[in-house]
Specification:
The complex is a heterodimer of chains A (157) and B (657). With 157 residues, chain A is mainly α. Chain A has eight helices and no strands. The longest helix of chain A is centred in the N-terminal third of the chain and has 21 residues, at 23-43. In chain B, strands 8, 9, 10, 11, 12, 13, 14, 15, 16, 20 and 21 form an eleven-stranded mixed β-sheet that branches. In chain B, strands 44-43-46-47-41-48 form a six-stranded mixed β-sheet, with no helix packed on it. In chain B, strands 38, 39, 40, 42 and 45 form a five-stranded mixed β-sheet that branches. The chains are: A mainly alpha (157), B mainly beta (657). Bound molecules: copper (II) ion. Copper (II) ion (CU) is lined by residues 552, 583, 619, 621, 623, 627, 630 of chain B. Chain A: This is Cytochrome C.
Chain lengths: 157, 657
Amino acid sequence: MKFKVVVLAVVVIFVTSCGNEKKEEKSSAPVEVKKEVVKKEATTNPMDDKGIGPITSLTLADIDETMVAEGKELFKMKCSACHKISKRVVGPALAGITERRSPEWIMNMILNPEEMVAKNPIAKKLLAEYLAPMANQNLTEKEARVILEYFRTKKAK
Amino acid sequence: MKTIFKSLLAITVVSLVLSSCGNGSSSKKGALSSSVAEKVYVAPGEHDEFYAFVSGGFSGQLAVYGLPSGRLFKVIPVFSVDAEKAYGFNEETKPMLNTSHGFIPWDDSHHPDISQTNGELDGRYVFINGNNTPRIAKIDLTTFETTEIIEIPNSAGNHSSSFVTENTEYVVAGTRFSIPFPQRDMPIDEYKGNFKGALTFISVDPKDGAMDIKFQIMMPGFNYDLSHPGRGKSHGWFFFTTYNTEEANSLLEVNASQNDKDFIAAINWKKIEEYVNNGGGKKVPSRYAHNVYSDETHSATSTIKKEVLIVNPSDVPGAVYFLPTPKSPHGCDVDPTGEYIVGNGKLSADLTIHSFSKMIKAIEDKKFTGEAYGIPILDFDAVHAGTVKQSGLGPLHTEFDGKGNAYTTFFISSEVVKWKIGTWEVIDRKPTYYSVGHLMIPGGNSRKPYGKYVLAMNKITKDRYLPTGPEVTQSAQLYDITGDKMELLLDFPTIGEPHYAAGIPADIVAKNSKKIYKLEESKHEFVTKSEADSKVVRDGNEVHIYMTMIRSHFAPDNIEGIQVGDKVYFHVTNLEQDYDVPHGISMIGAQTSELLIMPGQTETFVWYPKQVGVWPFYCTDFCSALHQEMQGYVRVSPKGSKVPIKFTLDGDAVDAE
Ligand SMILES: [Cu+2]
């Protein structure tokens, strides 16, 4: 019995010393994120969560009707197979989305869904609930922005 | 006892682990050293250095492998229907296989060649020939799909094809079998003098790659076996091997082997092009199909062309010559400088090499020994550069490494022989397993070969793999050619007959590879760009279903009002806009294949419902965690039923809000 333990120890040491070059980078990233998760969940309001992605800060002006119209068309083509405004389908119903999430978070979820569902706490929770990961529809920032404008006209009732 | 055994086992395990980890010294094991394995090992997640496009021979397809690993990435359907990709089964691609003989679902694909600019591979297209019902296809290397097929009229056994000139000005198709011209009802034994061999020059539009037959040279009734373009100094010329200069029409294995020498035909295509551009040649009625697939409409169209321009070689003096070449030459290969033309007499043990500059001088000095049907025959000694002597049995094909060496396959003696250009001496020889046909060095048909590997393609494998009944795999073998001696690295199985291949550094092609089709750019006649636009439309007994798919449902997924005897079109659009998310669809009882639809693409299949009931359809490509949920139902009522057309998703009419 005792001998076996020693052998195991040797094997473990050996395995960890052999081929350890790549291991470090891989293990470090998730650990950091985890810490962040714990803190944020405890302290932040979802409207303060800007998500992860290209949009770091966004100031909204009055609603621009031209953008709304463009956004509505794009939404219909690229999003409406999974999202309706009025009801849950594959993904959540979107009425009132701009009252529940920050504009940055919404755009990042559209533009960078893979990283969002992997790392952002709110997005992770949504994935656990809906099971279908948010699809990347390869929209440009400009396209995501007009869709956001359309969402601003769809308030919760 | 038990404990001791366990301890021993543990020690053994530890020592095994130790010896396998980081042990640099390579102990030779049989023919292959462990460093050989490293040379072909591409670690999980890493990419190969080269693409190899290997023809499927009688499978009619083109396979894409990585080198050095030999891993198969894709089988591109070209001349044969392919249920996996619905090629030739869906409505969009059926026109690709149209010919003047109607829909022909199969062909024998032989010689892929990659497009060139300034004599170097540019990685835009691969061309490949169909032998049986003569056709040339073009594969677009942004999508890895067949986008154009042109039928070759007045041709048969389209074998000396599809090689490109050094700026892809032309892709060339030469007839293997001569046939009556014009085609007519006549006694076969009146072959001699009445049958002709067409050499076809297909222009390739430099902008969009569109193919068009520019002219056909109507040559004497020999068999035109293989061909290669001149390059560098010989750019503007094309060389074709011939056999059966005896013009035999029966028992060719004896009767076509009578002459001591056959010919390599040297064609000055620039001269003929000039002649044609100045109004030369004769437009002759003909019928051949030209099929084009568009990435905008995701659909192919087929047009029957009615005319072709014929050039009689004796009408263009100075454009065509014959170079006498011993013993039914097969391969016809031009070295990277364009100076040497290698003719491999398959019934000889020697390789005959002609010199381009000597040929030009001999033409100037009129060193002719006769003529055949008005075409001058050049004096052998005046054009001959050298001979590689007694190098093996049954020489077939030669490729070049760009470092002054040539590599020739020998079918009968099953080997690859390396020899030096200029001294004609043999440097090395290695066995192949077995009966090697073509060989390929990436860029080996260009001014700039990438002389790192040679791939030998074998007709017979016998004992090399696990047996699979009477039919066993054919295979390719990879050799390292960076040293003086060739080194066998890898065997790998291939699809069909790996007749010939073209290779190219991966980075030239990979960066242009398309990832999705943009939905908003689709011009498909039956595209459905959003769920809100999906619908079912009846038109007499035809019903058109405009359907969408996304992870993980179809819209609509409940359809009613279909009747027995209807012809039901499923026009299905994949709404995904993400890389690598295709969906499939199949319908119970549909007499066709499934569809495999790429993001942003629309495809169509036809279903003839024959039985009343409620029948399901489902997604055939495992697309997501809820793939098994991706399904729907069609209600089929008796003919003349009052059940109205109705289509829903989740009980609602489908809309966006
Ligand atoms: Cu699916």
